[in-house]
Amino acid sequence: MEEESKSLPSKDNFSEWYNELLMTAQIMDVRYPIKGVYVWYPFGFSIRKKVYNMLRNLLDVDHQETYFPMLIPKPELLKESEHIKGFEDEVYWVTHGGLSELEVPLALRPTSETAIYPMYKLWIRSHADLPLKLYQIVNTFRYETKHTRPLIRLREITSFKEAHTAHATWDDAEKQVHEAMDLYSEFFTKLAVPFIVHKRPEWDKFPGADYTMAFDTMMPDGKSLQVGTVHHLGTKFAKTYDITYEDEKGERQYVNQTCYGISERCIAAVIGIHGDNKGLVLPPNASQTQVVIIPIIFKKDDGGVKEACQKVKELLRANDIVAVIDDADERPGAKYYKWEMKGTPFRIEIGPRDIKNNSVMLVRRDGKKESIPMDGLPETVRNKLFEFQTDLLNAARDSMLARVKACETLDEAKQQIENGWATMPWCGEKACGLEMENAVNCKLLGEAHTIKGAGKCPICGKATDRIITMARSY
Ligand SMILES: Nc1ncnc2c1ncn2[C@@H]1O[C@H](COS(=O)(=O)NC(=O)[C@@H](N)CS)[C@@H](O)[C@H]1O
Fold it and tell me: What subcellular compartments does it reside in?
């Protein structure tokens, strides 16, 4: 495919840089003729594949993967009133089969509670069937009216991982909420994406949920990106869909449920947070290729360089490190540019001098360059890969936390969210919360366990130790 050789705009203009990079690095093609619907380039899809395989491996420890229908009959979708209130203006409808109008309109799943839970009713009979922990990775459809953007706000969400669990008691479901949060923490840590977990305010929780825990990360423009959510659903859906089980005493009880979702926003976060003016910077767990080997040949006789490259590639692959040799007939500099644009974590340069010293030149994507001996090469490279992932995460976390600031007044908060997040005391009343959102023109992300403090609610003046985070959001 034709590589776009255009240079990137500066990352200081994040939105322009982000859009240009998605095309130049061949992640997603935004030219599909439906708003909010985009096309994966094969390279972008290789990132998705790597990232979602990692997510599957984490889930498959104690979940089972399955697949539910995309089409949902209107009566099923409308059953849970709070849920449908939250989604009715986002649902796409299928009204015809060929030339004939359908008797019952069918919704394209915006999320799959209303497709799955009628089946859970049929599948769950006794406490022995619990806990039931299933997930699927599917496309979902939401008629988003806010600004659509590839990987961030799509109308066809192409990589929607949704897990749906059922438990005997509210506490068991609460335990599952925490297990899901631990799994998400591990997943985002492996992607070197820092996050703060906020409990969403009552008025912004998932429609039909008891409460919502959200994983929020900060994009370079200071806006928050909700990259994952975990919802405690209590018995609301169980009562609506009559999902009951027979307990040990033979009595019928409603199940308690949770659901938790991650979409391709996790990839938007990796690209946005770690990328630089030369292109993508991919943590090893997000990149199909971890090391590209570049032969440095000056004259006809390559002095054994080609052979050495082959040996290094085989050595690394034998140790589960994905290495490729770029032996195209191109100047090394042109190769560096190409692989840096694609965000490959490491480059190994091998020239006659390296052969003589029995070493290779290891260049880390962020520029760190060092000569390492051939002896123990795979072990050294593996350690360097892990070091890179840790350095990326620490740098991103430090930069995010440096931009979260405790503010005394709403004016100060308004100023602060121009380029970061503000935290302020909040009495917990919805009226005050909504007034804070209006005054600062932002979203209240909610309260975070990790953010402590005390003060007076800026609206009603009541003393409180509840601290809330405010941010501009995607
Ligand atoms: N239009 C969208 N484009 C891309 N990602 C989205 C979009 N809408 C939501 N998401 C992502 O999908 C995650 C789950 O969506 S959700 O509405 O919060 N939760 C659910 O749908 C629940 N059924 C859990 S799967 C969100 O946390 C967000 O990261």
Answer: Cytoplasm
